[in-house]
Amino acid sequence: MNDNNISLNIPEGKHPVETGKYLIATNEIDRLCYIVSNWIENRFPGAIIYGRPRLGKTRAISYLLKVLPEELNENIPFFHIRCRSYKSSRENSFFEDLLNGVGHSLASEGRPSEKRERLKNFLIFESEKSKQNKIVFFIDDAQKLKDMEYDWLMDVYNELDEHSIILTTILVGHEELINQRKRFRKKKELQIIGRFMSDSYLFSGLKNLDDFKTLIEECDTGTEYPLNSEISYTKFFFRDDFAPNFMLSNYAEDIFNEFRLVQIEKGLPVEKEIPMQYAVLTIEFILKKYGFKGERLNGLSKQHIRMAIMSSGYIQSELVLIDLD
């Protein structure tokens, strides 16, 4: 199949690498998938996924929503709900967000009590339609939840339980979630811990060379665009006409080592995990800047890789976090 013919059918700027609209597996996401599958299969009422910002938690959840139904071989309704900070009309806004998160078409209509009832009825319907007695909520930015909002979530859990439906609520957010659990334990709020915080998982970035290899090999062999073209993301940008047999994974060790050298040079903690966001931005820079739409290189030097890392925003972000500490 001719790469150039395929490229003509793709509007400028619409490749997934250019739009950022793609999901890619990593070692950490595979580990997380195993843990979350166990939580759901063992009917955990709730658990925490936590980690510092920019590690890729939200993208990981999007990936899980895609693969978990097949992994579990069950038609369980999964919903991804994003938290906000509420300043007024909290109950009304909270249940409106839950309705939006589950995809209800009438999320904004009615009083809080009506929204509660609408949510309950919708979830019961989804459970019956799926022929499962399970519902799974992924609540993103869950560190924003206040005590009252946990009480409202508990009401939802209890109402579904009355209909023999198990709600598993997975809280996704920053390390603050663990501090909240400690606070609830100190206050003897064991019902909240039992319902929503019965287990936890520390989500990590890229820690070692193997993590980088797994991520980069996905670009070489685990991705495809356009659909059914058998052209990976790497092959799309590094065409055979100027870069025969180019494989980005051949540079995985160089990319990993350059990240470590940058950490040392900039006074960052050595051996610190690399947030997924900046590893992905580095790879995207290489594909776009040095591939057929850019400089059309047939190989990468360490200087090219260094430029890609610096352009990702990694250094600025890490230095800010150090200042906040």
Automatic annotation (TrEMBL):
InterPro entries assigned: AAA_22 (IPR049945), P-loop_NTPase (IPR027417)
Classification via Gene3D superfamilies: P-loop containing nucleotide triphosphate hydrolases
Entry's transmembrane regions: none
Every ORC1/DEAH AAA+ ATPase domain range: 48-177
Name of the protein in its database record: ORC1/DEAH AAA+ ATPase domain-containing protein
Organism: Lysinibacillus parviboronicapiens
Lineage of source species: Bacteria, Bacillati, Bacillota, Bacilli, Bacillales
